[in-house]
Write a structure and sequence with these properties.
Layout: H1 3-30, H2 32-39, H3 46-69, H4 74-102, H5 106-140
Helix pairs in contact: 1-2, 1-3, 1-5, 2-3, 3-4, 4-5
C-alpha cells in the first residue's frame, strides 16, 4: 500500500478514534449514571460514581487526547498507535476470556469485534510507521 495512503488512513483513524474516545469520556463526566447504565453497571455509592468518572471519564478522555496528539507529531503517532494496540488489546483479551468462561452475549461479541478491529488497524499502522522511521534513520546515516 502506498505510504501516502497509509498516512491518510493513519490520520483519519487517529482522528476518528480520538474524537470518539474524547466525546465518550466527556459525556461520562456530565452523566456518569447514563454511562454506567449503558455499560450495565451502577454505582452503589459516591465511590462507585468516582470509579465510573475516573475510568470511563478520565482514562477515556486521556486516551482520546493521546490519539489526537498522534496527529501532530511523528513520535506521538507511535505512542498513540501503541496505546491503541495495548489498551484495546487488554480490553478485548479480557472480554474474550470472560466470554469463554461465562458464555457469549451479542452485545459483548459486538464490542469485542470492534476492539479487535481497533487493535488490527492500529497494529498495521504502527508497523508501517515504525518501518518509515527506521528507513528514514537508515537514509540519514553516513
Amino acid at each position: 500500500m502506498d505510504d501516502k495512503i497509509v498516512l491518510i488512513v493513519e490520520r483519519v483513524y487517529l482522528g476518528v478514534i480520538g474524537v470518539v474516545f474524547l466525546a465518550s469520556g466527556i459525556f461520562t463526566f456530565f452523566d456518569p449514571h447514563a454511562m454506567g447504565e449503558a455499560l450495565g453497571i451502577a454505582p452503589l455509592n459516591a465511590s462507585g460514581e468516582t470509579e465510573i468518572l475516573a475510568t470511563y471519564g478520565g482514562l477515556v478522555v486521556g486516551s482520546g487526547l493521546l490519539f489526537l496528539a498522534g496527529l501532530f507529531h511523528e513520535l506521538m503517532a507511535v505512542a498513540a498507535l501503541a496505546g491503541c494496540c495495548f489498551g484495546a488489546g487488554g480490553l478485548v483479551s479480557t472480554r474474550i476470556a470472560i466470554q469463554l468462561t461465562e458464555g457469549f452475549t451479542v452485545n459483548q461479541t459486538i464490542v469485542a469485534t470492534f476492539e479487535v478491529s481497533i487493535v488490527a488497524v492500529a497494529l498495521f499502522l504502527l508497523k508501517r510507521r515504525i518501518r518509515r522511521i527506521m528507513d528514514a534513520s537508515l537514509r540519514q546515516q553516513p
